Records
---
Amino acid sequence: MSKRQCITAASSRMPQRASRWLSSFFSGSMLVGSLLLGCTSSNAQSPNQIEVRMQGAAGSESVSLQVGGTTVNTWTASTAMSSYTANTNLSGEIRVAFTNDATGRDLRVDYIVVNGITRQAEQQAVNTAFYTNGRCGGGGNSEQMHCNGYISFGNVGAPPASSIAATSSLAASSTASASASACNATGQQCNWYGTNYPLCVTTPSGWGYENNRSCISRTTCTSQPSPYGVV
């Protein structure tokens, strides 16, 4: 028997079950590939992430985080040293402003963290709320804020664009699940008071952190007044 005849004979003896399995495997792989194709090349903007570490003397101190001259968020400082976080697509100078000075109210800002990098308050030259040399704004390089004013923490640039990719195995079950999660993660967004953020997939409420970026749960997003919400 020739080599060609031998191969032909072996092929004809291939069990039908194996043939069906191969057909299913390749068709499943093609389906998975088509699912992933629409989700792996989505580019999204990751917002600047800013954390402010601070505490108030009275627990009623009002503090605003400003970026590029725009107020991003306002908090009431606790008497315990606590962290307060915000996300923004704004760029420019970062200021932590103490805005309601009164008898018994003082603020201590330990540091801020900008996109994972810590900036210590006592290393900043501009602190217009520090009372020294007989006046407010008499010096810098201090954590203390005794008057209405601000600490300047330098600048932050525009948020970088990030690419979200779905990864999977060749197994159809796990790949289909991964591709579904990737599609959800890169789909609808939440217009959070004028700034768009991705919707969370697994976080049920509040803010979350999925796919290496911050996200907002659907329930929290839809609680906003019109015209904000899911977009």
---
Amino acid sequence: MELTLMRYFERIADYEILSWAALDLPVTKPALSNSLHRLEEEVGTPLFDRIGRRLILNNNGRRLLKLTRQVLPLVDQYHMSIHQRGTPHGTISIGSQIELPPQFIELITGYRLQNPHAAFQMATGSNNSNLLHGGSLDFTLTLDIDLKDRSAANAYLLSPLHINAVMSRRNLLARRSSLRLADLRDETFVFSWKQGSIERTYDRCIEAGYTPTIAYLVDQTLSKLILLSQSSLIGFMYDIESNKLDYFPELVSIPIQDSQFIPKAIYLVWREDIASCKVGRECFNDVQGGRGGFPQESGVGGGGGGGGGG
């Protein structure tokens, strides 16, 4: 029996709703459903009673859950004991100006599954640059618009960014393949509001010639999507967050093609001395896909330069 299937099974049992469990795991809801089906085929019996959307453990499921919660801690303890020497361990602190991209979370989750002795501390905020240089953070995810020097050796191009408008499929604009901000002049919006600041798209609308009408300001993406799914309102999201729409089939995401939007990218920026931290160096190389290139003490490395993109 695969350990990954056991971990997924435990999380499904905790949440009882497949989509909620998937939000807390580096997999989509269909993939998690397939994993559960594989596990039930392997053990030869259903593990849950299906009641509407809820998955309630049956007697077989309760027995397997008890066994799972005995086995997994022992496996983690074993991995820690054999990997403690010669492999990275410690805590990696990561800050981000935007909600951590799902692709990045999946990468570091995969890293930790292979290195259970490593821990992550992650937070979003606008003061990450000071925290990074002050030593409180090891890495930050930074928009290139805020990156002072795109050629800095300690900045790695992680992903391009594009803005999409999100709305109900009932909206007439949902039939369009792309939109300009001016097309949304008469719409009402849900905007993100974090740490006393409204999302930058609000200012881009003003630059396009109108002040957008606001119905809600929210500090969580999930809240925004729920509001959009139950109304005719418009919201904005980065394309890297589009997988969250898998749980809201009534919503559609349409690219914004507008001169107000300068092409952006998101960079992984690290503290100058992080190359001397083994867990940080190994994690960085893992994020790069095993290509290596972490800058050494000279501050020069093949994976470093943020000169691309932008």
